[in-house]
């Protein structure tokens, strides 16, 4: 079962929710996705929703059976952007004034400026951070917002104490800086959610709201929800088929590219099955409804993509596990240092005096309270996980920059973790290995005859007709030709009359003479004049120029390329043979593609999926690394981790290499972020790390992450 979890702000929140749900009796698997707010729960037996809601509410979050709507996600995205802008507008001037003040320039009323600016940042744009921290604390656990809030409020409190007369340094500006860094992270998170929601919206846009139902009183247009199994519906030319069913009357040419990924319409007649979302390009059909509601093909597709979205690949699994204990540990250490300095000040003061000979900012005679607060704030500030938060996104930003120069777009960091281990690459045929656009490759007609049949084909919407017309336009000089008595025969071809001669263009009467061409993945169009065969036209979806070399290199890298296509087996194997692929899965539905991905994953393989169609979307999401061809459908592009913008299959090799290097940099960034904390926290606890210096050290740690990430461009 699936449901929405609201109120999560970080990986720690996700861990708390998953841990609470796993405690329920019978739960076998739980996956919670922060970006989409969706949870997937698998159990041995049905668990009442009220138990699930209680388990989640007990740790401070809310369960909803309805997924976040596009409007709600849009609203949250705009709110996070607004909060970030307000915070930046306050913090940047405060930072400038703080630097000037620390440089020796006396800024009038600096304490009051910090008091007002810090309060404005914390309690206006930072109010959601405070609320999240309070919810966590009130339910006896912590999250990243807890540390940020405690650090910000403690730093701001020093300004309050300084104003009321205590001899203590003010760190009010640092409070604003901490909140601002946190809000920038929230904005990035909201943007991720906003992007993720578009995938389902694209599928939903294919759904039909109404159907033409055949009743005793004639054809009545009814809402789709009122149509029942067994009803007869009428679908005209140009309309989408609203529900799954079987044709009981009529014949039509149907565009099923959303199922098979193939551009050519399929001819269907009585007793043939049809599915929702496909389009009747020509003809008129009466269909008996066999599936409604959630059982329809299109709704199953939506469900597949939703499930794939919620699957998790732990790119920061180590970081998540450590941060689960990091926050309470840091807070405990900060409190411990404050208590020790307050009660044992005289014991430790000689240490400060000796340290001041080396480090000028060490407080040697501030007294127990000031030194305790000094140590407490410094420990919290130094431990705020800014570098940790930048470790992954900065590496991805650098990777995105170099990728763009190579015609690649890296959208999603989650798949990068396993890119170095990819050993199996599944790829669609049409639009991936081939150009996806049928074109004339050879014919044996004279120019006049070809020009006549091209004029006839102008009256057809079939993709093969378009290929013939385009060829004539490019290779034959145009003349004024008037065609009469044009008739398109669904699933067979088209006829037309010119100067009392009747021309037929369509399927061959006998396919045997063209068997060699057809085995080579070509379509043969036969041309007759007055029922006498005068020639043929060979049409094929050409293989991309770089496909053969790309497959060869992938094999040399130790990967196994496998074709997974909705096309027929003969055509699929012919194309596979040309490009050098040995293993082929043909006549494969979108559901089957996902099953094939999972089959190899269960066998222990690391699977990449390359595709360009709606039918590839769920498989792209389910794979360890989804790669979409940039000239494909919007849904395929939205569902992928990497996009090849120019459609060159050889760019897959670049994508994998970039991902490998990027993941190495992410690991290095995470190491240095944790190493920095291990060194800096003890220094802050013993009172030799000034909070301002701690903030600067935190900044340098972030700069180190940025610099290390930028080196990705030098390695590619």
How would you characterize the overall build of this protein?
- This protein folds into 5 domains: 2-68, Alpha-Beta Plaits (2-Layer Sandwich); 72-199 and 310-387 and 694-701, no CATH class; 210-296, Distorted Sandwich (Calcium-transporting ATPase, cytoplasmic transduction domain A), CATH 2.70.150.10; 408-433 and 544-645, HAD superfamily/HAD-like (Rossmann fold); 436-542, Calcium-transporting ATPase, cytoplasmic domain N (3-Layer(aba) Sandwich), CATH 3.40.1110.10.
- 50% of the residues lie in helices and 18% in strands.
- The chain has 24 helices and 26 strands.
- Helix 23 runs antiparallel to helix 24 (691-710).
- The chain is elongated.
- The two termini are 44 Å apart.
Helix content: 40-55%
- Can you list the strand order of the major beta sheet? 14-26-25-24-15-22-23
Summarize the main sheet.
7 strands, mixed
Give the N-terminus to C-terminus distance in angstroms: 44 Å
Family: Belongs to the cation transport ATPase (P-type) (TC 3.A.3) family. Type IB subfamily.
Main location: membrane
Pfam families: E1-E2_ATPase, HMA, Hydrolase
Subcellular location: Cell membrane
């Amino acid at each position: 079962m699936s449901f929405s979890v609201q109120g999560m702000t970080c990986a720690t929140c996700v861990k708390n929710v998953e841990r609470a749900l796993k405690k329920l009796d019978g739960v076998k698997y739980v996956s919670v996705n922060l970006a989409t707010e969706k949870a997937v729960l698998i159990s041995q037996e049905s668990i009442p929703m009220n138990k699930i809601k209680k388990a989640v509410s007990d740790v401070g979050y809310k369960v909803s059976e309805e997924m976040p709507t596009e409007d709600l996600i849009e609203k949250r995205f705009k709110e996070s952007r607004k909060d970030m802008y307000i915070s930046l507008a306050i913090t940047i001037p405060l930072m400038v004034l703080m630097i000037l003040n620390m440089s020796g320039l006396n800024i009038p009323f600096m304490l009051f400026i910090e008091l007002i600016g810090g309060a404005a940042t914390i309690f206006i744009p930072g109010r959601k951070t405070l609320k999240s921290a309070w919810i966590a604390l009130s339910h006896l656990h912590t999250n990243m917002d807890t540390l940020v809030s405690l650090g910000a409020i403690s730093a701001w409190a020093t300004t309050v104490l300084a104003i009321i007369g205590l001899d203590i340094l003010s760190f009010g500006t640092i409070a604003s800086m901490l909140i601002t860094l946190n809000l920038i992270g929230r904005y990035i998170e909201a943007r991720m959610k906003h992007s993720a929601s578009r995938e389902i919206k694209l599928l939903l846009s294919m759904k039909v709201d109404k159907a033409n139902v055949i009743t005793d009183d004639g054809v009545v247009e009814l809402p789709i929800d009122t149509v029942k199994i067994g009803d007869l519906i009428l679908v005209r030319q140009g309309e989408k088929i609203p529900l799954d069913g079987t044709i009981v009357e009529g014949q039509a040419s149907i565009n099923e590219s959303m199922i098979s990924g193939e551009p050519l319409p399929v001819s269907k007649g009585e007793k043939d099955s049809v599915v929702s979302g496909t389009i009747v390009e020509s003809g008129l059909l009466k269909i008996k409804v066999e599936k409604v509601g959630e059982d329809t093909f299109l709704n199953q597709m939506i469900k597949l993509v939703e499930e794939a979205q919620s699957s998790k690949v732990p790119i920061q699994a180590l970081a998540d596990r450590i941060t689960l204990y990091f926050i309470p540990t840091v807070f405990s250490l900060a409190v411990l240092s404050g208590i020790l300095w307050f009660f044992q000040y005289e014991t430790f003061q000689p240490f400060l005096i000796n340290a001041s000979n080396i480090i000028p900012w060490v407080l040697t005679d501030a007294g127990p309270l000031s030194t305790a607060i000094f140590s407490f704030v410094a420990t919290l500030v130094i431990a705020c996980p800014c570098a940790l938060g930048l470790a992954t996104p900065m590496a991805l930003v650098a990777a995105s920059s170099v990728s763009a120069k190579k015609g690649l777009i890296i959208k999603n960091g989650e798949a990068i973790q396993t890119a170095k281990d990819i050993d199996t690459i599944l790829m669609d045929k049409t639009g991936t290995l081939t150009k996806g656009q049928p074109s004339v490759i050879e014919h044996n007609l004279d120019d006049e005859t070809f020009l006549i049949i091209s004029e006839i084909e102008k009256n057809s919407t079939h993709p093969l007709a378009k290929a013939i017309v385009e060829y004539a336009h490019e290779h034959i000089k145009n003349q004024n030709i008037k065609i009469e008595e044009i008739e398109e025969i669904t699933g067979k071809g088209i006829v037309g009359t010119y100067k009392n001669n009747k021309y037929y263009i369509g399927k061959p009467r006998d396919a045997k003479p063209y068997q060699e061409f057809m085995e080579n993945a070509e379509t043969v169009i036969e041309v007759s004049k007055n029922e006498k065969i005068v020639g043929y036209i060979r049409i094929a979806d050409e293989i991309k120029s770089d496909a053969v070399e790309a497959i060869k290199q992938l094999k040399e890298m130790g990967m196994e390329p496998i074709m997974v296509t909705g096309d027929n087996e003969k055509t699929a194997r012919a194309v596979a043979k040309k490009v050098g692929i040995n293993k082929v899965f043909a006549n494969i539905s979108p559901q089957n593609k996902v099953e094939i991905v999972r089959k190899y994953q269960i066998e222990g393989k690391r699977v990449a999926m390359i595709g360009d169609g709606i039918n590839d979307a769920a498989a792209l999401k389910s794979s360890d690394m989804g790669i979409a061809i940039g000239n494909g459908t919007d849904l395929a592009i939205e569902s992928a981790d990497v996009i090849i913008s120019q459609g060159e299959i050889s760019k897959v090799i670049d994508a994998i290499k970039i991902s490998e290097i990027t993941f190495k940099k992410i690991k290095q960034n995470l190491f240095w972020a944790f190493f920095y904390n291990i060194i800096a926290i003890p220094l802050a606890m013993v009172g030799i790390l000034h909070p301002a210096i701690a903030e600067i050290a935190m900044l340098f740690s972030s700069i180190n992450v940025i610099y290390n990430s930028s080196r990705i461009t030098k390695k590619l």
